[in-house]
Amino acid sequence: xxxxxxxxWRAGSSGAxxxxxxxxxxxxxxxxxxxxxxxxxxxxxxxxxxxPGDIARQLPASPPELGEAMDDILDDFEKIVxxxxxxxxxxxxxxxxxxTGSVPGVVAEMLAAALNVNxxxxxxxxxxxxxxxxxxxxxxxxxxxxxGWFGVINDTASISTMLALAAAREAxxxxxxxxxxxxxxxxxxxxxxxxxxxxxxxxDKGAITxxxxxxxxxxxxxxxxxxxxxxxxxxxxxxxxxLGMLPLAVVATVGTTSSASVDPVPDIADVCERERLWLxxxxxxxxxxxIVPEWRHVLAGVDRADSLVVNPHKWLFTPVDLSxxxxxxxxxxxxAFSLVPEYLTTTEHADxxxxxxxxxxxxxxxxxxxxxxxxxxxGVSGIVERLRDHIASAQFIAERIxxxxxxxxxxxxxxxxxxxxxxxxxxxxAEGDRLTAAILERVxxxxxxxxxxxxxxxxxxxxxxxxxxxxxxxxVEAAWDELQLAAAELT
Length: 491
Ligand SMILES: *Cc1c(COP(=O)(O)O)cnc(C)c1O
Description:
By secondary structure, this protein is of the alpha/beta class. 40% of the residues lie in helices and 12% in strands. The protein has helices at residues 20-39, 70-81, 103-115, 126-142, 157-171, 177-180, 201-209, 230-242, 265-275, 312-315, 330-337, 368-402, 429-445, 473-490; strands at residues 150-154, 191-196, 217-220, 246-253, 278-282, 307-310, 323-327, 407-409, 417-422, 452-456, 459-465. Mean pLDDT is 95; it is low at 1-6. Bound molecules: pyridoxal-5'-phosphate. Pyridoxal-5'-phosphate binds next to helix 5.
């Protein structure tokens, strides 16, 4: 193939970005595609209908030597990439925790990508820092939390929780782990972290990452409704102290991943205050329910915690990724992570917040913009209305399950999550498990709905989560019909 002069769709001039004409063409096509996609994502099957390797096989093994036309790249996005997409924006997406990348959030993401700023220091884009502080303070007020919480945005709840555990370690007097580390020290007791049996795996991963050791995450038994039993917590802390171990932190969960159960935070806070333990609250999914006045109570006691994580990218219509971490002790978080090399020191504005001081990462993208757009575009009342609608949809499914022979709820229905199973009269528990799993597989394979599963009390359960703004009541009714149809076909 002959290598010709720079074709018109290549860089406008050597070393430059796309020419104005090509930029216009690509941006215009992309925004038109986005508009049409968000208008109706349900034209695609919700679950990607591909086998492992199907996508990779279509991708050249080595990179192109010459630049390619944006039109060709966008063609391949549609032809190769889209078939391998599981459509989280699809109204039939009811698996895991359903989410929404709302239009205001998507627009903000486009603008943030265009600005391409890095908010590591206040001066590297004052708006990044100041909008982050303001948007997180708006969210704090919406959640009904007291003033005095300091917020910082991370990519995920997993990172937020890990940082909280690092702060808990820094807060404990006498350990001096920041300077001296943990290895080879005979003066260091075993450090213990407590969370319920139903806690998210990110608690365990955080403890593993920080070098506490997985064995030192103590999983506290739960009650019949999957909530941590505070008396068991107190008991384990006392036993560990008697063994010479050092209890450090407790992670309480508001909205567990399996069944959305809510740990009794006020009782856990009592234990933490008495025992001087750092209390971190993982409200990644369900915390935003507190924006709804009649659900405000789910964050009762949280104002007594040391740190909190809530994920706007889960149930607050904000595109992935945006996890809001709050702490009432920002000085401790900063002490754990601030480390300023000479080339990042600034003499001016000594009193500003530099967000790089509150975590591991230096670089910080402009995530606050999308949260600010989302809150402004829907308003608090619009957000409340949408959350209420999702909770009502979950109640609708729960009602059908309660009143239909063979179907049972596997956990109390909380927020917008319903866990259930199918066991017709006369079937054993094991047969019920097999049947419930087969129903789930059949529904998912049809492409209109995606649900996920869990195990509760060691029995298989389908998890149906409502959290997508595009999911209307008729979708929820159709999902119930499809579940019943699958059950009828399989029995
Ligand atoms: C989803 C979830 C997490 C993990 O969230 P990431 O942002 O994906 O790390 C942690 N805890 C709970 C309770 C969750 O529901």
